[in-house]
Design brief:
The chain is an alpha+beta fold and 145 residues long. It has one domain: OB fold (Dihydrolipoamide Acetyltransferase, E2P) (Beta Barrel). Helices cover 13% and strands 31% of the residues. The longest helix is centred in the C-terminal third of the chain and has 8 residues.
Length: 145
């Protein structure tokens, strides 16, 4: 990558509230990752609509390798836009069991459908209790504003 990587996705301006969807069923981190619990010991992970608003159109996504064990809070992926490159942090600990291969050809799916076709990777949880440390939608809205 040629762009300098920032430590985190920039803070959102107050104007994002009217434009960005924050689904109630998901859990969130203050660093703008979302987690969907599938109820079978696995979760999907992506970046929020707030993050995509801040980053702009994504042009490249670097995902972790399947089989890799991630520690909660560790940098594990990179999203690069026309504006900046930012690390994505593991919101929970676990083993990567799948990555969204479609993003290598079409990273803009993260912008157009961050909570659907724009998911980044799936984890098999190491510690289900870590889900309790994540923010619900209301708390995430407060932290992102």
């Amino acid at each position: 990558m040629n762009r300098q990587r920032s430590c985190a996705i920039p803070r959102a301006p107050a104007t994002w509230r009217a434009r960005v969807d924050i689904p109630e069923k998901l859990r969130y981190t203050a660093s703008h990752e979302w987690v969907e619990d599938h109820g079978d010991g696995t979760v999907s992970v992506g970046i929020t609509g707030v993050a995509t608003e801040q980053l702009g159109e994504l042009v490249y996504v670097e995902l972790p390798k399947p089989g890799k064990n991630l520690a909660r809070g560790a940098a594990c992926a990179v999203v690069e836009s026309t504006k900046a490159a930012s690390d994505v942090y593991a919101p929970v600990s676990g083993e990567v069991v799948a990555v969204n291969e479609a993003l290598s050809d079409s990273p803009q799916q993260v912008n157009s459908a961050p909570y659907a076709g724009g998911w980044l990777f799936k984890l098999k949880l190491s510690d289900r209790g870590e889900l309790g440390a994540l923010l619900d939608a209301q708390a995430y809205r407060r932290s992102a504003s």
